[in-house]
């Protein structure tokens, strides 16, 4: 296992542990995406990032991830954080129209046989009054007479990039929703039989449709082709009468405005004449365009399902075909109808393009139903795929199935809802719905089928800004979400949060020509945006300077290690070092190569340069104040503190030492070693007890020579003794202990010493220690008496002892006297008067 795999394994294990602890901060698993963002808008365009405006914040950490900020990191004060959140507010939320329970009113009762005028004033207010006749009052109360099938109607959204937002949208199909059907018929000669059939079927169509919705209107228009060669023969007689039963050809003619008078429909169809043209494709696109855009003429109601039935047996001309007839002016997509209902621009404007039709059909929420014969059905199917909301039905050769075709198509159209939107590519809009399956899962689709009246369908609309458009104007968009073929929509006023407010003039963090940027840039959101030819973090560099030798080499200290830029404690910016800020506010790195700091100096007593009142640290050296000196500013310059106070000799250290840094260093002589704060002590030296004696006496005990209060006050001003219970001399403090008898034969004790300020301090015992007084004659008499008594006692004792001895002797004498018998026996002490001697040398027997 090589080192790489090992470390990788370690990493894996480490990550595993972290993950299992469920506390893995994002910074561990993936690189923090925020740190690389140097501008406010870049920052807030990154999800999960926030920006710090604080002028005193470190520039390279302004874009941060609030979720991962730990407490040790320097935090951005709340007031400076720019972290906008998605905001939604509903501007309009009308309640949906409810399906009313009264049931569908029989269509027959609504058939109006009155002869209507040709012209129709198709406005909703008229329709509204109609609607009251079928009992829609309930809705009127809800939305001012309007049918509401989509809610909400308008919302305001402020979105961050790549942060999706879900909106709940509801769709319901209202009962008896009005239907407008405009029948657009190809009246070229081949369609004459279809026309006959339609005029016969007209009533049936109306009747069938009224069975589906009681609020139904029918209109009629026809088309042939442009009256220009080669579409139409322009020979004079052909122009007037292309065929026997034909009328003069025309582009498009509007015959009957949408009307509830359905009888008129058959009538109008019957009265319309066929015409003739030359080529096979017809000018149907002109007709579609006009019938779609001429809202007033056709009479499209604002609130109605709009059906445009386009019936033909031929294919169509489209944009570009006009060139064949010398028509180059493109179609303008506007309404050009004469009072008689003829399309006036037929010979002057080209056919509209499919796209144009798609657009105008979409804009007008019209469902086009192509009812075409089998021969052309394929091409119309392709066309329908490119036109929103359109469908194709197969028409029999004589249009006999037109009624069922329309009914089928209508039912299909009205039973499906398909949501669309017009958002630009910068915004993604997704639809999620369960359609009618209330228990099912949400499906990503914009289309639901088989809807019946009264069904409520919920769409979840997910809006997400994919990227911020470069163009600022596009940051605000209006997006329309609408069901195809219904003139109702949800309008989203979307504001993309692509920029910070502080990037716009007028904000307090926006300052042009700012002194913070050396007057060479705009101060924006805490950073400088430099004018041309200036650069650097504070725009301190200019291109003129840069033209000099500005390379990273200028950031390398000449006498330092090679290749180390800014001593690794700063960034090399435009050839100058910009030193990093320290986490601790009390520390600063500086110098042209960031080689200096104000925190790496000698310490004394744990204080940098003996504390700020002694000196400050400058680039590794302590700079001391006036009074101090030494490498750590711990040495006092003046000798004043070496003079013993309260002496007149004026000798430094009492003449027995030298003064170093304001402290006496005492000498050692043959007398012994000098000691004490001022070298005033030595084994043979006298102390100064006597000097202070009188004052201690008078101040403490009111005795002594200065007993008089006035004397005491005038002569004793140097100190005031501090009373203590018991006086103990503290050798370390250089305290001297003194004790004297006063006139009362009492001992009083005190200590004196010099405190840190060389001020004399005296501590004296509260109470003097006094002896009891004894009367002398008593002692003398006592002694004599004691001696006499002692002699007497000895005499008596001698007398007693001798007496006892005498008695004993006498008693023994008496006893022996009694026992004495003058024995006849030999007196022990009697010695015979004669004595015999033997001569040892005599050997005769004698
Ligand atoms: C609109 O109103 C309906 C009820 O009237 C409510 O359920 C829905 O939440 C509202 N929608 C919004 C976006 O406020
Ligand atoms: C047809 O519309 C007219 C007004 O335009 C109205 O007076 C009449 O009642 C309507 N007829 C039917 C059957 O709705
Ligand atoms: C149709 O309306 C126009 C004005 O809009 C009017 O001049 C004309 O007479 C009306 N035609 C009929 C048949 O009422
Ligand atoms: C009208 O609708 C009813 C039921 O909704 C149906 O029975 C009847 O056949 C329909 N009439 C026509 C002409 O379609
Ligand atoms: C759709 O309805 C609104 C009012 O709800 C109306 O202003 C607008 O003109 C209508 N659009 C069309 C194409 O009819
Ligand atoms: C027709 O319009 C719709 C909606 O604007 C669009 O999605 C579709 O692509 C358009 N079709 C063509 C062929 O442009
Ligand atoms: C979408 O349609 C609305 C309403 O017609 C319009 O105001 C808006 O500008 C359109 N938005 C886009 C992006 O085209
Ligand atoms: C609804 O959805 C669930 C799960 O997707 C499915 O099992 C169920 O058959 C669906 N019901 C209907 C009526 O489609
Ligand atoms: C730039 O540097 C080169 C060599 O390092 C030196 O020869 C030249 O004079 C310098 N130019 C300026 C403008 O300082
Ligand atoms: C170091 O410098 C900074 C900035 O000038 C200052 O705030 C700080 O008090 C200094 N620290 C010391 C120990 O002098
Ligand atoms: C302080 O005393 C030392 C010797 O004890 C002497 O060398 C020095 O000059 C004196 N300094 C001053 C300011 O008198
Ligand atoms: C006390 O002080 C006065 C003058 O202040 C002086 O005349 C007197 O001698 C002093 N007494 C003693 C005992 O020193």
UniProtKB/TrEMBL annotation:
Domain named Integrin beta subunit cytoplasmic: residues: 799-845
GO biological process: cell adhesion mediated by integrin; cell migration; cell-matrix adhesion; heterophilic cell-cell adhesion via plasma membrane cell adhesion molecules; integrin-mediated signaling pathway
Domain Integrin beta subunit VWA: 39-500
Protein name (record): Integrin beta
Family: Belongs to the integrin beta chain family.
Keyword Transmembrane helix annotated: yes
Signal peptide range: 1-19
